[in-house]
Amino acid sequence: MLEQIEAVDWGAVPGPPGWYEPERVAPGLRVLSGASNLVRAAKAGSLLGCGGIVHDHSGTVFPAAVLAAPLLLEIARRGHPAARDTALALLDEALCFRPHAGYERVATPDGTTAPLCCALAHHLRAHTDFLTGLGGTGRSLLADAAAHWRFEIHECAADGPATVAFGTLTGRFPEGARSAELHHGGDVTALNGLTLEYPPEADSPGACLRIPARRPSELPPGAVLLPAECGDRAH
After folding, report:
1. b/e for 93-124, b at 16 or more Cβ within 10 A?
2. Closest Cα partner for 8 from 58, 104, 72?
3. DSSP assignment letter at 226
4. Are the C-beta atoms of 52 and 86 separated by less than 8 Å?
5. How many angstroms separate the CA atoms of 131 and 121, rounded?
6. What are the pLDDT tens digits along the chain (235 aa)?
7. Running DSSP on this structure, what letter comes out for residue 201?
8. Is pTM beyond 0.90 here?
9. H or E element, residue 105
């Protein structure tokens, strides 16, 4: 764990000057990973929550929170109960808080430049079994993460003036017509009026979206859709 913490150059992670304090992150994670009582966990929470990965007084989240999320989840899984509770509280704040304008996105391994909340939700969903097993706190985190849905296009077909897109849906697509960002090849395109044709079944993430006023050629396989409102969340 300590090697993973030190492997990140937290000073090179962007953040709003005067708010993000990168020198707090590694010490906070180190203290939290070794915390064995409430006092040590609270000290770590203060380092990380007052300018490290979030600024709790202003309700601000920083890009560093996305890089810290897998570490916090590992601490929650293996650490002392006090460390677990602090890690989960920080993840909850990071998911709910808003970033500063200009610091609201992060590059992800799938090639998208995702809003911080969507990137954080992806990390939380990767630990679904663990979080579900925690009971109310873990299930609440997963429920909040579900609002930050992600749809990857596998194939499309024309259907009148619209296109039906078949692919993989993670999270919960809301009722009614929605707006989305289409991410492909480093470009982001706005889409409007999306509706869910059919949802995933219990044993499969496959789903179908109807996308009006777009041709199948404009919606290539491998493209990713994210909620447009997440891209608008900024102070």
Report:
1. bbbebbbbeebbbbeeeeebbbbbbbbbbbbb
2. 72
3. E
4. no
5. 12
6. 888 999 999 999 999 999 999 999 999 999 999 999 999 999 999 999 999 999 999 999 999 999 999 999 999 999 999 999 999 999 999 999 999 999 999 988 877 899 999 999 999 999 999 999 998 999 999 999 999 999 999 999 999 899 999 999 999 999 999 999 999 988 899 999 999 998 888 778 899 999 999 999 999 999 999 999 998 887 7
7. P
8. yes
9. strand 105-107
> Smallest Cα–Cα separation from 24: which of 39, 56, 36, 37?
56
Q: At what angle do helices 81-96 and 116-125 cross, to 10 degrees?
A: 140
Q: Judge whether 64 and 52 are in contact, CB under 8 Å.
A: yes
Concatenated DSSP letters of 170-197? ES-PPSS-EEEEEEETTEEEEEEEEEEE
Among 93, 94, 114, 118, smallest CA distance to 105 is for 114
Cα(78)–Cα(33) distance, rounded to whole angstroms?
A: 9
